[in-house]
Structure formats: C-alpha cells, structure tokens
Amino acid sequence: MKTQQQANVPKADFPPELLQASLKERVDYFKTRLIDHSLLNVAFKKAMAALGSSSGPRVVTITGPTGVGKTTMARRIYRQLMKNYEAEIAADPSMVPVLGINAIPPNGTSFNWKDFYFRLLEKNGDVLLDHKLNLPRQGNMFPELLSPPPSEGATADTLRRALEKCIRTRRTKFLIVDEGHHLMMVKDDGRLEYQFESLKSLTIETDVIIVLVGTYRLLDIREHSGQLVRRSEVVPLSRYDFRRQGHKHSFASALATLQNKMPLEETPDLVPDAEYFYLKTGGCIGILKDWLTRCLEQAILENRKTVDTEFASRFALDNKGLTTIIEEALAGEAKLSDVSLDSIKTLLADGMPKVIDAPEDPNKKKTPKRRVGERNPVRDQTGGFHVAP
User: Which CATH architecture has domain 57-137+147-236?
Assistant: First the structure.
C-alpha cells in the first residue's frame, strides 16, 4: 500500500527517449504540449455550443488577458471544427470548412483591410490571386514603367468581392481570426463603427461565422455597434483568480501537469510553491508555460537534472511588467462585467441622460468671423528686398 508521501511524488509524462534527444527536440516537445485545464475547458465548451447552434450568433468573440492561452484555444477550436467536417471534406476535397488567420497589426495608423483580404485569399488557395487587379485605362502609354505588383494593383473592394466569392465556392463555414483586437487599431475611435460594419457585412454576404480571438479590446464591439451585438456572443477565457473558489486547486493541477511533461532527468516538484507561480504569472497559464519553457532550455544548457523554484525565479517576469499585465487584466474583467437589470429599467424609463452645455466664459475673447475669401491678419515680411537685375 502506497504511503501519502509516495503518492505525491511527481511522475514524468514524456517519452523516455527524449532524454537522449537534442536541446531543440526536447524544448520543441514541451512547447507543443497542449494541456487541458478547467478554465480552458469551460470556455471551449461554451464556444463550441455557440458555433454548433443553427440559430446561434454570427460572431463569436473569445477574449481574455494576455498570456491566458487564447491562441491555444483558437487552435483547439480549429481542430475540432475540421474534425466535425471530415466526412464532407472526403466527399468534396475542394471544401475548406474552416479558415484560420492572424490579424496582422498595421504598419501605419489603421488596420489594413486590403492586406487582410489578400492573406485570406492565400489561405483559401485562390490560384488566381495575382490576377485580381484594377487595370489603369492607359496602362500601355508608358511601357518602360514597371507594372505594380498584384498586391498593390488590387483594391480592397476588389479583394473583398473575390474573398466573398471564394468563401461561397469553398463552402467555408467558419473564419477564425486570432489576434482579432488588431482589427480595432484605427487612427480615430470614431472609425471603429466602420470596422464593425465590415465584419457584419462579411457574415451577411457569405453566411460565414466569424470567431474573433483577442484581448479585452474586442469588447468595444458592445459599445459601438448594436447590430453586431445582436448577432454576437462573448466567450470569456479567464485567468485563475485565487479569490475564487476552486481556482487555487485548478492552477496547482495545471502546474503539476506541465512540470511532469518537462523532459528532464528528474521531474520538478514545483506544486508546493504554486502560490509563488500564481503571483508571478497573474494566474495566466500561457505565461506559466512560456516561463517553464525558458527554465527547461536553460536547465538543459547547464546540464541540470531538474529545476526548482529558486532556479525558476531567475527567469520570471519582473514585478513592474507583471503590474502592467495584471492591471490590464483587471480593467478588462471590469469591462466584461454585466450591468444590472435595474439599470436597463431606468434607461428605458428615463431615456439617455441629458448633456448640459458648459456656460460660456464671458472673459473669453471672441474671434470675429470673416467673409469667404477674406484674408486672415498676418505680419508681412519687411526688409531684405531682392532687386531683379
């Protein structure tokens, strides 16, 4: 009969031959391990329920703090949806039921829809992508000039129409956009409405369900587009919070699963210090895994048999950086919280609160209005005359 102490000894959970593998192979193995933990499972089940409903939302927004595992979630949804359509793909190999793409942040001040459509067409296997051009009427007038590349010669509208046709032809059902908060990057917040309208019209024209995966910035949809709110559902992917019941145990369980998958000669025993690892990750499993990956690589380089908490602390995020991450998470969680039904009742009964204009300052100097074409007063330059020869 096993004693309690023997039962708590960490057990390795990786192929033993990995101990003889190269540094890259061992690190890559750990980096590609996906673990199930309670909060990820809760969010996954809710997202799949929304995506599997015939009368469900047209936009599913999966949001959470940085390092919580949103990309892992996006990949898991992609794999499951592809598995659901295996029979249809076998019957029609041209079918692409699920498209996955990263929304690339803009080089300038606003999100580049043209680049977004171009990348989607590439993902969808559009063999005629290089021919989607708006040709100039006098393209042959100057034959010595080089023609612009296809990606520059096409317009956003041209690529948008091509994408809509491609989605219908490929019978695409779902579009998963990771880093979806990059869509919200605009020079002026007033233009956010145009971003949301583009998403809404894409779902209407193609009947595709869009899955947006990103930070809490995606919650701006609820403040700028009532039509998109009506067609959407928010699925929060939360971090672990030791103030909530059961979260401490679930975080420790995730830490135990990860430590057992580290291909080291001796399995680390980090669970007794689970609270320290919680503090240094803000309860985000993605941050925890990145941290342990660095520990694993350095331990192999230093020929260590295992890692402990003291060794791991060398590679933890600094406290100032953690403060920024946690403050962003708390602000997003506050934004995610719902309002009471009483506030809806008050709004319907009283309407929008009136905005009272500030009284005009009597001491403020008024600038007289000028007629169209009348010149503003300026000081003319004097001296330094130049006499023509």
Answer: 3-Layer(aba) Sandwich (3.40)
The C-alpha atoms of residue 374 and residue 317 are separated, in whole angstroms, by 62
Please give the full DSSP string across 230-283, using - where no structure is assigned.
HTEEEEE-PPP-TTSTTHHHHHHHHHHHHHHTS--SS----GGGHHHHHHTTTT
Question: Which residues of the chain are in CATH 3.40.50 domains?
Answer: 57-137+147-236
Q: DSSP of 133-150, one letter per residue?
A: ----TTTTS-TTSPPPPH
CA 210, CA 60: separation in Å to the nearest integer? 6
Model confidence over 136-175: pLDDT tens digits?
444 444 445 444 444 444 688 888 898 999 899 999 999 9
Residue with tokens 């101990």: 19
Strand partners, 63: 214, 236
Alpha helical stretches, state H, the chain = 4-7, 23-31, 38-51, 70-84, 86-91, 113-123, 150-153, 156-169, 192-206, 221-224, 226-230, 247-260, 274-279, 285-301, 309-312, 319-336, 341-350
Per-residue model confidence as pLDDT tens digits over 73-129: 999 999 999 999 999 999 999 899 999 999 998 887 788 888 899 888 888 765 444
Q: Residue 236: is it exposed, middle or buried by C-beta count within 10 angstroms (0-12/13-18/19+)? A: buried
Q: Which residues pair with 175 in a beta bridge?
A: 99, 210
* Angle separating helix axes 38-51 and 247-260, nearest 10 degrees: 100
Q: 100 pairs with which residues across the strands?
A: 176
User: For residues 238 and 64, what is the distance between their CA atoms, to the nearest angstrom?
Assistant: 6
Q: What is the rounded distance in angstroms from the CA atom of residue 286 to the CA atom of residue 68? A: 5
- CA 14, chain centre distance (Å): 30
Cβ(71)–Cβ(237) below 8 Å: no
How far the first Cα of the chain sits from its last, in Å, is 113
pLDDT for 148 equals 45
Q: Which residues of the chain have pLDDT under 50?
A: 1-7, 127-129, 131-143, 145-153, 385-388
For the four alpha carbons of 281, 285, 287 and 293, in that order, the dihedral sign comes to positive
Q: Which residues pair with 62 in a beta bridge?
A: 213, 235
pTM of the entire predicted model: 0.78
